[in-house]
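Incident log, structure service

09:12 report received: a user says their structure output differs between two submissions of the same chain.
09:20 pulled the input from the user's history:
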Amino acid sequence: MKHRLQKQFIRAIATFRLLEDGDSVLVGLSGGKDSLLLLELLAERARIRHPEFTVQALHVRMNEISYETDTSYLQHFCNELGVRLHVVNTCFPTPSDQISSSAIRRKQKQPCFLCSWARRKQLFNTAQQLGCNKIALGHHQDDILNTCLMNLTFQSHFSTMPVKLRMRKMPLTIIRPLCLCHESDISLYAAQRGYERQEKRCPFEHESNRTNIASVFKQLEALNPEARYSLWSALEAEGKLVEE
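09:34 re-ran on a clean worker, output below:
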């Protein structure tokens, strides 16, 4: 299983040109199976020095949400890989934060929106403080396709989270090197590898539209085993996977 995931990881890097010599990459390390795998693969690739890049990891804790990962486990995991770990605490945005009031009013009852925004802001700030030019996130192919279905269903447009996104207001590029990996493969490898589970799960993770869409996606795959690849090809053909 590790070999298959490595091949998909390397193919994604080559296909979408996610890494270049001189890159300094900050990995968003939540402690879940996806981010653990991402950090493991990136750290191993960095040791090959082709391309030549550096890797650091950031774990963000939210003060208002009661879920957490064993930081000592994350530290041990990073030590084994030779990666420096940064751990920071943050909180939900206040009226003075740089986020539109209309967006807050529209989604003020959705803690997932506020939590994601606050985490992303901390990730951006830390990356720039550390001199990193790229942020790597652990979204896999299922995440990207589910986002596409969510946007079609709730936002009336055909789009998704890009595999590569160059930020316009800051010198950062977001990359998703697990974009060709299937969640089922990652879950199997995580069990084989013995990744430690989070101590407390997010209390809202089973109450979101994303959870419902994931169920719809599984029904589509049951209807047509090639549905995954049809959706992916459509996104690629429309230029939705890379924004530079």
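09:41 both user submissions now match this output. Likely a transient worker issue. Closing.
09:42 reviewer note: The first helix runs from residue 2 to 16. The CA atoms of residues 125 and 173 lie 13 Å apart.
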